[in-house]
Design a protein that fits this description.
By secondary structure, the protein is mainly α. The chain contains 6 helices and no strands. The relative contact order is 0.19.
Length: 74
């Protein structure tokens, strides 16, 4: 099984509806390098397993979960 890593860019995260609906403070927090890396890692884990499995096992904030879900749909 070939596992490819998908790189999620800050611009992709900022283009999601979930991100657009966040308060200015949460937007600033969510667009940090660490948060983008966490979202990118989550998308890759979901692609290799499933969103449901990742959601149960992760301790991610609700906004990260919603952004990951939205990125997976696109």
């Amino acid at each position: 099984m070939c596992m490819t890593n998908i790189r999620i860019l800050r611009s992709q995260v900022e283009a999601t509806n979930t991100f657009q609906e966040l308060s200015p403070v949460l937007k600033k927090i969510t667009s940090t390098r660490n948060q983008i890396a966490q979202i990118s890692h989550a998308v890759n884990v979901c692609k290799n397993t499933s969103y449901e499995k990742w959601e149960k096992q992760s301790n991610a904030q609700w906004r990260v979960k919603e952004i990951v879900k939205e990125l997976l749909k696109n």
